[in-house]
What we know:
The protein is an alpha+beta fold. The protein folds into 3 domains: about 1-100, Rossmann fold (3-Layer(aba) Sandwich), CATH 3.40.50; about 125-210, Dna Ligase, domain 1; about 215-335, ATP-grasp fold, B domain (D-amino Acid Aminotransferase, Chain A, domain 1, 2-Layer Sandwich), CATH 3.30.470. The protein contains 10 helices and 15 strands. The strands form 4 sheets. Strands 11-10-9-12-13 form a 5-stranded antiparallel sheet. Helix 1 (about 30-40) runs parallel beside helix 10 (about 325-335).
Amino acid sequence: MKRIVLLTDYQNRFSGKWAAVPYRSGMDKDRLAQYFREAGFEAEFLSYSQIDFRARSFRGENIIYTSSEDPGLFYKSFVEDIIYGLELQGAKLIPPFKYLRAHHNKVFMEILRDLMPISSIKNIKSQYFGTLEDVKLMGPLGQSEMVVKGSSGASSEAVYKASNGKQLATWARKLSQTGDWWYHIWDLGRSFKHRGYRRESRHRKKFLVQKYVPGMERDWKVLVFGKKYYILERRPRRGDFRASGSGIISYPEHVSEGLLDFARQFYDAMNLPFLAMDLGHDGHQFYLIEFQALHFGTHTLDTSPYYFFRNDVEWQKKEQSSQLEQVFVQSIADYLS
């Protein structure tokens, strides 16, 4: 029986699960082990801290891992160290390290978009910045409406619309502000002590700016696990442009083939076992707003009464609730075979 390694965090949790009991306890590891065994794999659970690169080589081994959403992303930084070390050692990471880097990191997610040879997802263009001063160096970013996003965050908690350059500067200043006040006081002292010294920026949190796309009255959260597509429709609150996090959701019984085809084209090109996408439509074309390849919310799968799949001829809907661990393992098994 083939072995597969699953990495757990410091609370012995594997990934996230919206319907987990107890709350925020992750996927059921016993179920995962059972389903992997039925698929021909022996599951081995290890914590990130148990990885000893001198004692054991993971070269050629299949490693499934997730991420962390801890405040400040401190633990995520540790997870990145371990996962990148495994990649350097030659482990087969599911997904590759670059997608961990893109989790809660919209700047790197946009860099991945820019590097992908998929023209259909490039109708949204982003400019990304490391400091507020970088924006000033770029000069005017245009007079049209813009969307300003912090690099981390979910449910539109760090997403704003700017109608002019003044509003853009306000939101950029807010999103990029760093709170290390003692360092700034020390740095101020340097400017008095050393003539000509230029103080470090007080706005060093990275962020990005996108052109606002009008006409998107809703968006769709699309989760794909293997051949199963789970769709959640989201609408913005009155007077807001952000659908994510609004709480105004539904499970559409009829989804356009255009939406499903767009999602499928991107998913197939990514060559991954599972993927989460936020998609929009302005009345003319579809847009990939954001995507994640690991540790994304599972509410859409956990609560959807059906999923969509494509047979040899057309898209069909299967009226059936899904069990996350089973769908997750099946997508991995299909991917590895």
